[in-house]
Amino acid sequence: MCGIIGYIGNKEALPILLSGLERMEYRGYDSAGLAIVNNRSLLVEKSVGRIEVLKQKTKNKNLYGNLGIGHTRWATHGDPSTVNAHPQFDASKKIALVHNGIIENYQSIRKMLEKEGIQFESETDTEALAKLIGFLYRGDLESAVEDALSQVDGAYGIAVIHSDEPDKIVAARMGSPLIVAKGTDENFVASDPAATLEFTRDVAFLNDGEMVVVKHNEIKFKKQRKMITKEFETLAYSLEEIERGGFDHFMLKEIYMQPQTLEETMRGRLMLKEGDVKLGGLRDVMEQLVKMKRAIFLGCGTAWHAGLLGEHLFEDLAGIPAETEYASEFRYRNPVIEDGTVAIAISQSGETADTLAAIREAKRKNALTIGIVNVVGSTIARETHAGTYLRTGPEIGVASTKAFTSQVLVCAMLAVKLGRLRGKLSHEEAFDLVNAMNELPSKVSEILELRDQIKAIAQRFSQARNFLYLGRGYQFPVALEGALKLKEISYILAEGYPAAEMKHGPIALIDENMPVVFLAPRDPLRSKLISNIEQVRARKGIVISVCNPNDQDIRSISNEVIEIPQTLPQLAPILSVIPLQLLAYEIAVQLGLNVDRPRNLAKSVTVE
Ligand code: F6R
Fold first, then answer.
1. N or C: which end of the chain has fewer CB within 10 A?
2. Does 196 sit in the ligand 1 pocket, CB within 6 Å?
3. In this structure, are residues 55 and 2 in contact, taking their beta carbons and an 8 Å threshold?
4. How is domain 244-438 classified at the CATH fold level?
């Protein structure tokens, strides 16, 4: 995710900004930049890629000054490029702004300012805010920022400087973290205490709606234009602990981020009253999408599982014939692609070699290609005709967790959109779906409370040699995903199967040592699943069921139950996968394995 650092004091700002940016490298980013006030003008440097590149670019340049701001960007609007990197500037180029988050109404702000004759350079939402502050500036940065923020919707953590006001940084928060760190005759703002820890441990955390004006010897907090007081606290934890946000592993942190990441994926895209969805990145191809005759989802591993769910959702909600292919098989199969076929690549990294090759093959055969990708500006994002970003931020743990739930959510949003436009979904049905989507983050939070219970289950079964995961309908891909998570981080052989297929082979494996995880939320196939559970019990298998609360039928035939909140069956995979992620995690921890770096695996598979 993006990172912010700001410095004001009596030292040179440049090395402090660079070191702060380096400290935030673990968060993942694709470009970086900084601005320093020198003699009432702004000195600026930006680069694409690693902080080291920015560092090299600043060498032998006279970037002197005691006030500056810096930023690492993880693109959400516009490719990673120097023009899209932050800081962004107002029209006079005297105001520099760095921003984390998303300004949702940036297009209307941009249009309004363009009508006033203001020209834009970047594709970012951030530039609209920088230009708006400049437009409202009447000699006082503090009030210009307050006025501008009263006109924006969305999430932000910002730091702003003006070359004519070289004694201050103005910073504010709404939805994106921001801290102020207090030194002696110097102060800092940052999105992350990791950026400033080497200079001071005295930190105040801003809350949503709060603003701060930071001078070298004075810090003034405000809320709704009125002064407030805030306490500073002395941080006791280490840099590494901060990077993992207090979690033992990145994977755990990412599992716990899912309420926020799902929120980000939906931000500004759900029309709750209308029962509809807005997907800006697909606007230009929407007509073609509505008329599509067939969808082919392409992906690998976890992304392939998300594709299987996309297939169900497209058929169920939009009436579109759909199939899911392993990208690695599709690319070599000489697939038949008729007119009206849309190939949808799902990829967290956007760089997976097989998925990229598959999408190229589909393109070569004249299919419309769509990307459901996390990393903005990645190769798949660039090479597809259009797409939708996941907006989950960088995924560092090798086992994919938060990307999966957002991939499924994007598939569901797209299916609702197409279902509405194709007249397959009534307003009422779509209304129920988007409102159920909106409730997912809080339901995920409820499931995360079950960690201790899941840990206890993990303790009981971590010595098992094999696991079976069974589900039907929407829950079958979840069974595959649960099994994959366990395999990759615990090295226990786990199989995912459609529950009814069990009797055609895997049932031979079942004995009193075999834990079988059943995905059994209330849905139209639950009663069939109950028979499958009975078949396992009859062979003395250990039944671990993921079900909805107060389900006595399931409870009475299970050895363990993990209760998750109910939602519509089409969205239930986003909830039922969470306990499976936690179960895999806790088992791997029990076994003393390196959860974030499982053997033989790479985060981004750029080879065949
Ligand atoms: C599993 C996992 C992999 C990836 C697969 C595709 O936890 O991470 O199976 O899902 O390598 O990667 P992306 O989504 O980057 O194309």
1. C
2. no
3. no
4. Rossmann fold (3.40.50)
